[in-house]
Amino acid sequence: MSTEDNAPDGRSGVLGGAARGALAGLRIADFSRVLAGPYATMLLADLGADVVKVERPGTGDDTRAWLPPADRDGTSTYFLSVNRNKRSVTLDLATEAGLEQARALVAESDVLVENFRPGTMERLGLGHRELLARHPGLVYCSISGFGAGAGAAIPGYDLLVQAVGGLMSVTGDAAGEPTKAGVALVDVITGLHATLGILAAVRHRDATGEGQRVEVNLLGSLLSAMVNQASAFAVAGVVPGRLGNAHPSIAPYETFPAADRPLAIAVGNDRQFAALAGTVGEPALALDDRFRTNADRVAHRTELRDILSERLATAGADHWSSVLLAAGVPAGPVNTLGEAFDFARKLGLPGIVDIPAAPADGAEGTPSRQIANPIALSGTPARYRLAPPRLGQHNEEILHRTADEAATPDESAT
């Protein structure tokens, strides 16, 4: 395990806290790009891991070119969203020199993360069997779209997985077309699964000295994340369909048209429904045989929606949100993303953080605006040490040092 401090430039984290994160000393060779892998490695970097991002010379991570939008320096905001706290090196894996540098980087790393098409790393001589034979303590994480078997040749794009994995079949209005989620949700879920698998494998390695391969794929991650909908099919043979914003098993649990904008109401039990009925001026609804229990309300959801919609249309969403929350009924307006960040700020939750520009970026360097890591650790909180790197920004710092270390082997290493 690497013992060097993983804040190479010596700057303290934006949020303060412990000088070293929970994963300090953990070196990750990150060969991944786009979203699932970079999201996983960014979360680990926030918690203290030293992540070295390996990119193609000249172009780098695909998302560097995914714009607009871009920041004031012309950098893709997509790339910026998942690459903070990392150091970038460029390696041409089509050359023997680049492969030698990659092998040297892996030799001093604890974890390797890659999301090339299955078989690519093996063709490069960087496959898990070869590297684990050389480095038995290595945790090798492979992320794919559809696994390394019969689905290996299928491109792993989030939209495609949402379609073939069933998510689009349950998303959207019942009378409309199947709809994707408004963000690449499958990639994010897969990144979270990769993070969990990596941490479990590192824990095992620290206890036994044995590394292993971690494999996650987009389709499997989505099927797991479909939770109750997937269980309904697996257990009861129910093939769910689209219900718009309604819930298949709970009512009322959807959006309603208030006087000015949509209002979300999430009633989870009979007590909350009675409070809702009283607050909107229809207390008798809680005693109505059509709506007395949740099962009754689900069976008569259309009638209930019509009654509630008429009452809720008499005032704005902010009014109803205020009085319903005061009555113990989960409710809130459908916010824009800007309103969502403002809401988090009012609640005292960290939504956006600014990472100061490194001195090497020049006196006029602007801070990098980043979305806060949602994991709160009391002793070793997430730290924001490095803005997302420029392509190859750390070649001199990392590759020359790696070459020097390769030329002078550490005889004490095991």
Automatic annotation (TrEMBL):
One of its GO terms (molecular function) is transferase activity. It holds the Pfam family CoA_transf_3. Transmembrane segments: none annotated. Keywords: Transferase. The keyword Transferase applies. It comes from the Bacteria. PANTHER family: SUCCINATE--HYDROXYMETHYLGLUTARATE COA-TRANSFERASE. This is CoA transferase. The lineage of its organism: Bacteria, Bacillati, Actinomycetota, Actinomycetes, Kitasatosporales.
